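Our preliminary data section would be incomplete without showing what the modeling component actually yields. Below, a chain of 366 amino acids is followed by its predicted structure, encoded as tokens that our downstream tools consume directly.
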Amino acid sequence: MSQQIERDHQRFRKIVRGKVKSGLSKYISRGEMIGKKGRDFVSIPLPSIELPQFRYGQKGSGGTGQGEGQPGQPLTQPAEEGEGGAGDQPGGHILEVDLTLEELADILGEELSLPRIEPKGKKNIVTTKDKYTGIRQTGPESLKHFKRTFKRAMKRQIASGTYNPADPLVIPIREDKQYRSWREAPKPDAVAAIIYMMDVSGSMTDEQKEIVRIEAFWIDTWIKKHYKGVENVYIVHDAEAHEVDEHTFYHTRESGGTKISTAYDLANKIIDKRFPSTEFNIYAFHFSDGDNWGDDSPLCVTFLQNTLLPKLNLFGYGQVESPYGSGEFYEFITELLEKKDNVVASRIPNREAILGSIKEFLGTGK
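Predicted structure:
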């Protein structure tokens, strides 16, 4: 019975995966998955899957195709004319299923044919440590638990009548000895860092920020599939750059001009202070509408090429379309595409373009 249940469960999970995969672009563009994100699971509404229902009754007691009737006769009683109001019968339900972020990453990789990310050098090493978890009867003398051994020997001597309170000599024998037991526990190091930078000047609307939020969720999901530990950094900028928390990153409202180089400079300082490139795989993604101040764009390209890019596995620039931005910065970034193989640029005009942009960013496998 348990094997049959397990087979049914696995078959149901395959159906769910197929439904999510076939409607992936819909879920991405609407952001439904992110809104229902828990710590390790994402709840996804699937209206096209119905749960089986069982009805109990006497065999042959009626039902579709049984009993008297005429061709064309309705199978249910017709409602009386003028009858209305709230009903008392159950309606259709939307089934919510939980998928792990690991399963979502697999679905994303299958749908977009994404290559595996290959961590470089020693930055993907996961250390292990010995964790003492219990007591056992055998082991090396160096791990002998003295207190437990002594108490066990005393109990044995008292029970056997050989313990003399006037001469409290306790001598453990082999059966009394207790040893600490251990197991190797993986100690995941934070071996990857993702730095998100976003233009929050007056030309970036709430819709553009929502596009960035959705795309960042999927980038996170895919990169975390390939690393034991990932740390996220969030930077917002207008004419100045600031490090913020995740909530502020997606909900802050700013105004004023734009100076992109301030974000790149802050990202570089954070890397040098907290994520040395000899120990971390570092991914940086910058989202903007392409509007930038004066002569700052050539400075950004020079700074990227000479200072920031040598420290990064991947730099992705995503340009969202805003009714107020000029969009000129995209042309400056394209200058680096032929010079550096760790630079990717993507245009994201609307939510429907998110899926293609994710493929552009993550399709390098870096």
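The chain has eleven helices and ten strands. The mean pLDDT is 79. Preliminary results of this kind motivate Aim 1 of the renewal.
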